[in-house]
Amino acid sequence: MALQLISRIAPQEYVLEKGAYDRLAPELKSRFIRRVILLHGTKSMQKAAPYLPDLSQQGIEVIDVSFNGECSKNEIQRMIDLIHSKQADAIIGLGGGKVMDTAKAAAYKAGAVPVILLPTMASNCAAWSCLSVLYKDNGECIGHEIYQNQTFLLLIEPRVIFDSPIDYFIAGVADTIAKWYEADLLLKNADRKSLALRFSREAARQCLEIPLNHAEQAIEDMKQGKLSDEWIEVMETNIVASGLVGGFGDEYARATAAHAVHDALTIRKETHHLLHGIKVAYGIMVELVIEKKYDEMTRLLPFYRALKLPFCLEDLSLGALTDQEIHDIADSSVHKPFSLMDMHPLSPSVETVYQAMIELEKWAEQNKVK
């Protein structure tokens, strides 16, 4: 299968600093933006409000819109309709990954209007990437879409993200280390030479090494209320380095098996309360069994234990599943429409994924803390 390489590397402008939101009004004006949709989560707005400028005082009309909870086709269409009916010049997405993915999707489909992102968590690379992960209104993942236009402006106010729930930060770390494991085989066996692919592979390497070396300290600093250099580095890795993997590498560095398992897990209502990165963490272990990288599983085990990441079905509230129900998850990981498993170089079958999940259960039992 021939893979595509179109690098959509980064937002047009990126600012990480205390007081980053103070740049919002002048940046909007410089782009001739006078009326904006502000899409946000309720809790996200509460966290960001102390740092947000009053745009109306600076001649910019703000149409305030609360997010409905899922980056679904219905929610995206609602935003498109608002952009058109309010004749908005741009859309601002303030919140977590689903808010920002909705803003990106609506902006592109409404005619490639400018999108400005203000992440309030570092739980994934949604703030960086020019794609959206799509869900049904009930929370079931149905795939992703890639857009041709990049985010106009990304503003990170570290004090806002530092005040986000620690669980989301940990989930972001898990999602970030998946970049290395999912891109490794694709990039190592690439059928072409490209500087973009070398940059992608290096970004993926940092997505593993920085968290392994610094995430535990960053999490402890977050618990202690210490906005440290280690925390900044890990936070930026979750957003920037992870986004650069696919930004440079395109189809040579997209999500594969670990995220395919994540997507399949969403068919089970028992997992809907679990964050994206937590389900991906389990998917990493399934992928490593598929690839027979048992030494790497052993290497990751202390890290998983320290961050309380799942490496068996019981950790996902799925310990009571029957063999058939496990097989159904494996089947969904391979046969879901637009399954990411298709991107894996080994082309795992349903039976391969099923046997990997069963083998992982046995491995987890052997490695339980006694």
TrEMBL record:
<dbReference type="GO" id="GO:0046872">
    <property type="term" value="F:metal ion binding"/>
</dbReference>
<keyword id="KW-0862">Zinc</keyword>
<feature type="binding site">
    <location>
        <position position="276"/>
    </location>
    <ligand>
        <name>glycerol</name>
    </ligand>
</feature>
<feature type="binding site">
    <location>
        <begin position="120"/>
        <end position="123"/>
    </location>
    <ligand>
        <name>NAD(+)</name>
    </ligand>
</feature>
<dbReference type="InterPro" id="IPR016205">
    <property type="entry name" value="Glycerol_DH"/>
</dbReference>
<dbReference type="Pfam" id="PF00465">
    <property type="entry name" value="Fe-ADH"/>
</dbReference>
<keyword id="KW-0520">NAD</keyword>
<dbReference type="InterPro" id="IPR001670">
    <property type="entry name" value="ADH_Fe/GldA"/>
</dbReference>
<feature type="binding site">
    <location>
        <position position="131"/>
    </location>
    <ligand>
        <name>NAD(+)</name>
    </ligand>
</feature>
<feature type="binding site">
    <location>
        <begin position="97"/>
        <end position="101"/>
    </location>
    <ligand>
        <name>NAD(+)</name>
    </ligand>
</feature>
<dbReference type="GO" id="GO:0016614">
    <property type="term" value="F:oxidoreductase activity, acting on CH-OH group of donors"/>
</dbReference>
<dbReference type="InterPro" id="IPR018211">
    <property type="entry name" value="ADH_Fe_CS"/>
</dbReference>
<feature type="domain" description="Alcohol dehydrogenase iron-type/glycerol dehydrogenase GldA">
    <location>
        <begin position="11"/>
        <end position="140"/>
    </location>
</feature>
<protein>
    <submittedName>
        <fullName>Glycerol dehydrogenase</fullName>
    </submittedName>
</protein>
<feature type="binding site">
    <location>
        <position position="175"/>
    </location>
    <ligand>
        <name>glycerol</name>
    </ligand>
</feature>
<feature type="binding site">
    <location>
        <position position="135"/>
    </location>
    <ligand>
        <name>NAD(+)</name>
    </ligand>
</feature>
<keyword id="KW-0560">Oxidoreductase</keyword>
<feature type="binding site">
    <location>
        <position position="259"/>
    </location>
    <ligand>
        <name>glycerol</name>
    </ligand>
</feature>
<comment type="similarity">
    <text>Belongs to the iron-containing alcohol dehydrogenase family.</text>
</comment>
<feature type="binding site">
    <location>
        <position position="129"/>
    </location>
    <ligand>
        <name>NAD(+)</name>
    </ligand>
</feature>
<keyword id="KW-0479">Metal-binding</keyword>
